[in-house]
Amino acid sequence: MMTAEQIVIAHKANVETLFGLTGLAFEGVEKLVGLNIQVAKTAMTEAAQTTQAALSVKDAQELMALQAGLLQPAAEKAAAYSRHVYEIAASTGADAVVVSNHGGRQLDGTVSSIRALPEVRDAVGDKLEVFFDGGVRSGQDVLKALALGARGVFIGKAFAWALGAMGEEGVTLALDIIRRELDVSMALCGLRDVKDASPAILRSA
Ligand SMILES: Cc1cc2nc3c(=O)[nH]c(=O)nc-3n(C[C@H](O)[C@H](O)[C@H](O)COP(=O)(O)O)c2cc1C
């Protein structure tokens, strides 16, 4: 049996731990928001510069050279961004990250989360779990995300549409349809286990 004093001490320690963790989480969110604002600002400035450069292009060769010049820095920036995300997540003691662009509801011209997924997966390695959302509408979409390294996916608008159409029953039905589509897609790709989904089942455009 604990004395009243021991109970108070234990509670105090729990509260301190809780607030310590919450503080760490807020710190992580602040850093992520800062990083994303910086990336969005840079993306907008660069888009304006690229448009100006594209408008002053004189022939097809010049256009090809302009595009080729853009590819390398874009790949380097993506890798640097993913590394930053990993460092921030790791510094908060997080177990997992969710690759999401809010379903494209905010800055809809930024990179889609499915494009960012493999880069984040590579940067994180096997140190953190990676989850994904944005544009998941079918079982095939789930399989694509798993193939690109997600452990699992979340669903936003599809869930809301099902709820609006048929209430709770609609949500259950939508999830069931997606699950069955995932089964069929896996069978058509020759997969028995979701863990076997890899980029090998995809072909880039
Ligand atoms: C109506 C609505 C409100 C949302 N509000 C937020 C929000 O407040 N914060 C947030 O991080 N994401 C928000 N999201 C984004 C979702 O959390 C999720 O990332 C997104 O819906 C997934 O993409 P999907 O809708 O294509 O499945 C919202 C999405 C919808 C549809």
Would you kindly provide a written description of the structure presented here, covering whatever features stand out?
By secondary structure, the chain is mainly alpha-helical. It has a single domain, classed as Alpha-Beta Barrel (TIM Barrel). It is built from 5 helices and 3 strands; from the N terminus they run ααβαβαβα. It has helices at 4-55, 60-91, 113-124, 139-147, 157-188; strands at 96-99, 129-132, 152-153. Strand 2, helix 4 and strand 3 form a beta-alpha-beta unit. Residues 100, 102-103, 105, 133-136, 155-158, 160 line the site of flavin mononucleotide.
Secondary structure: helix percent: 55-70%
Q: Outline the biggest β-sheet.
A: 3 strands, parallel
Overall mean confidence score, pLDDT:
84
CATH topology, by name, is TIM Barrel
Tell me the domain tally.
Answer: 1
CATH class: Alpha Beta
* Biggest sheet, spatial arrangement of strands: 1-2-3
Oligomer: single chain
Outline type: globular
Under the CATH scheme, the architecture is Alpha-Beta Barrel
Going by helix content, strand content and strand pairing, the class is mainly alpha
CATH superfamily: Aldolase class I
Identify the bound ligands. Answer: flavin mononucleotide
SSE succession: HHEHEHEH
